[in-house]
Each structure stands twice: as structure tokens, then as C-alpha cells.
Amino acid sequence: MDILSGRILLRPTNPARSHEFYGQTLGLAVYREFGPPDHPSAVYFMGNGLLEVSGHATSSEATGASLMSLWLQVRDVVAEYHRLSQLGVTLLREPRTEPWGLQEAWIADPDGVQIVLVQIPADHPLRRDQRPIETLQ
Q1: 3-state secondary structure at position 66
Q2: Whole-number pLDDT of residue 134
Q3: What are the extents of the domains in the chain?
Q4: Cβ distance 51 to 28 under 8 Å?
Q5: Which of 12, 29, 63, 121 is most buried (most C-beta within 10 Å)?
Q6: Which distant-in-sequence residues (6+ apart) come within 8 Å of 12 by Cβ?
Q7: pLDDT per residue over 57-79, tens digit each?
């Protein structure tokens, strides 16, 4: 598999507490923020990796496999999904385009940890430089 980038996804039971911990207590710098202003999500720099704190897990879901997942950017999510299905990998959800524009498929490792395979379309904002043209000259 050709991995272009990756990150760890954390689905905390108390998002505000987790943002306080990672952003303030640990002092991780913010790579990007997204989502609604009243419940924002953030991706933090974590050395050579990224930690995304988003979503909300209920107390009944609070197990290691449900609180954490891996986010792996691939070149072709459909091809990887089909290749992995032939290898007997646990498939959780077929590839589809999410409301935020990313193409995602979900699989699981042998311990049940969710792995999100992501393809970023060519026209998605994550692929475009958002700075005004005059600042680039």
C-alpha cells in the first residue's frame, strides 16, 4: 500500500477536556481546525505525526478500539479496499464520498482498531493552496 500521509484519530468521551489536555496541557500546536464553532475538531502536530481530536464517544463506547483509529491517505481508496478484501481484511464500510468531500473506506486491524482509508480528490481544499495569489508573488 502506498501511504501518502497518516494520522491518529481520537474520539474522546469529553472533547473539551481532550482539547484542553492536548492543546494546553501538552502544548501541541494546531495544524488545522474544522467543524462547527460550538464543537470544533482539531488536528495537532505531534512530532513527525498528527493527532486528530474529533467526534464524541459515549461512555458505553469507551474502549481502546472505539476511541482511537488510524487515518491513512492512499492514492486510490477503491483499489485499496478491493485489494484488502481479497486478502481477508475485516471490511467495515465500503468506499464513499463523505459530506466533507473526502472519499473514505473503513477497515479494521486484527484487534478491531478502525483504519480509515482516505483519498483526497484533486479539487478538495486540502489539495489547494488557500492563500490569495498576491501573497504568493
Answers
A1: helix
A2: 66
A3: 3-136
A4: yes
A5: 12
A6: 18, 53, 55, 56, 57, 67
A7: 776 555 555 677 888 888 999 99
Question: In 3D, which of 43, 66, 38 has the Cα closest to residue 53?
Answer: 43
How does strand 41-46 pair with strand 49-53?
antiparallel
Do 117 and 71 form a contact (C-beta atoms < 8 A)? no
Pick the CATH number of 3-136 from 3.10.290.10, 3.40.50.800, 3.90.1150.10, 3.10.180.10: 3.10.180.10
Query: Which residue type occupies 125?
Result: P
pLDDT band, residue 136 (cuts 50/70/90): low
State the pTM of this model.
0.64
Q: Work out the angle at residue 36's Cα, subtended by the Cα atoms of residues 11 and 93, and round it to the nearest 5 degrees.
A: 45
18 grid coordinates: 481532550
Q: Of all helices (H) and strands (E), which one includes residue 46?
A: strand 41-46
Amino acid at 48: N
The cell numbers describing 27, all together, are: 502544548
45 within 8 A of 24, measured Cβ to Cβ: no
